[in-house]
Design goal:
Blueprint: H1 3-11, H2 31-47, H3 55-70, E1 76-81, E2 97-98, E3 105-114, H4 116-121, E4 127-134, E5 146-152, H5 166-177, E6 185-189, H6 195-204, E7 207-211, H7 215-223, E8 231-237, H8 238-251, E9 254-260, H9 264-272, H10 283-286, E10 293-298, E11 309-311, E12 314-323, E13 329-337, H11 338-344
Parallel strand pairs: 1-3, 6-7, 6-8
Antiparallel strand pairs: 1-2, 3-4, 4-10, 5-8, 5-9, 10-12, 11-12, 12-13
Helix pairs in contact: 2-3, 5-6, 7-8
Length: 349
């Protein structure tokens, strides 16, 4: 029986007990399968507002759905990467306890709508994502909102080094994947700050694929085989980098990052809190746990997942569920009967 079978067995109450002394912080069931229910609900809720130009409304609908479903999972969870602060009504704030409280102690990282702008405009690439790992293993970025990142899949995981020039990283990735640099596609957030980076990528001979938003999705797409994307480069959200690291660890890829201060005030706050802005953060620094779960559901379609689709009273979703212990990646197509869901759910599907 492999690790994934153990997770499935645990769902049925047949899991083999963990090692002595492992305690409540060692998950022995596949929480990723239950986490998919959270991302499905959030995607279904956000999709009702897709294309209406209301970024906040779509995100708040997704957050409310996440909250309802998170509290049904048998876990003692604490939010490390969340949404907003506890003074707002619809949030999953840092430090909040979630779950039924009767399961393993885990850290929680969520992005209710990865790609708010994409969802609001009805553009491809919006996702809802969530991750879990053993308590104390998910990196807390504190006041640091931005991170310079490089993310790749398993074939190039040992080749990258964010400290070397862009052209050298692309040369290493090309060598590791046994292709010419001209075959590489690099995902970059379309921001003025990346003008110089884009020039470097093009000068090295690689292609650029811009994304307007969706930092997590961009990194996971780069780490997943068969997407047509080879690497993500550039400055994006630190929280998104941490969540992406959870998925990338499940996929066997690699992400490296360095914290970037948005201004002098943020730099001073980061230094005062003990953060080293010159340190290179690896995948294991961003999520040190060995039992990591990640789930994502498409809100709008894209390279990674199909978006929410409507067929009469049936709503169709596509999700990914991953776990590091087994390395299994599940693509889950689900059909939701809205009339039945409305009978017992407070969520607007």
């Amino acid at each position: 029986m492999n690790d994934d079978d153990l997770g499935l067995a645990a769902l049925m109450g047949d899991a083999t007990p963990g090692p002595a002394g492992s305690g409540p912080s060692a998950p022995d069931r596949n929480l990723g399968l239950e986490l998919v229910r959270v991302t499905e609900a959030a995607a279904l809720a956000a999709a009702r507002l897709m294309g209406r130009g209301e970024e906040d409304a779509a995100e708040e609908a997704a957050i409310r759905a996440m909250r309802l479903l998170m509290d049904t999972i048998p876990m003692d969870g604490v939010v490390v990467i969340g949404e907003g602060d506890k003074d707002r009504a619809a949030v999953l704030y840092t430090g909040e306890h979630m779950g039924r409280g009767d399961g393993p102690a885990v850290d929680i990282a969520v992005d209710a709508v990865d790609g708010r702008r994409l969802a609001a405009r009805g553009m491809n690439g919006a996702l809802t994502v969530a991750a879990l790992a053993e308590r104390g293993s998910i990196f807390d970025p504190g006041p640091c909102r931005y991170m310079d990142k490089i993310a790749v899949g398993p074939d190039a995981a040992d080749a990258i080094d964010i400290s070397v020039p862009v052209a050298e990283n692309l040369r290493r990735i090309a060598a590791a994947t046994r292709r010419p640099i001209s075959d590489l596609t690099v995902v970059v957030l379309d921001r003025p700050r990346h003008n110089g980076l884009v020039d470097e990528i093009r000068s090295a001979g690689a292609r650029v694929r811009f994304i307007l938003a969706g930092d997590v999705g961009g990194a996971v797409t780069a780490a997943r085989r068969g997407t047509g994307v080879d690497v993500l480069l550039g400055i994006g959200g630190t929280a998104e980098g941490v969540i992406a690291a959870c998925a990338i660890k499940c996929l066997g890829g690699a992400i490296q990052g360095r914290l970037v201060a948005a201004d002098d005030e943020e730099r001073a706050a980061a230094v005062a809190a003990g953060y080293d802005l010159d340190r290179v953060l690896t995948t294991d620094d961003l999520v040190s746990g060995e039992d990591v779960f990640f789930a994502a559901t498409g809100i709008t379609g894209g390279d990674l997942l199909e978006g929410v689709r409507y067929d009469g009273e049936t709503t169709i979703t596509q999700s990914l569920a991953m776990r590091t212990r087994s390395g299994t990646v599940r693509r889950i197509d689900a059909e939701h009967q809205r009339a039945k869901l409305k009978a017992y759910s407070a969520i607007e599907y």
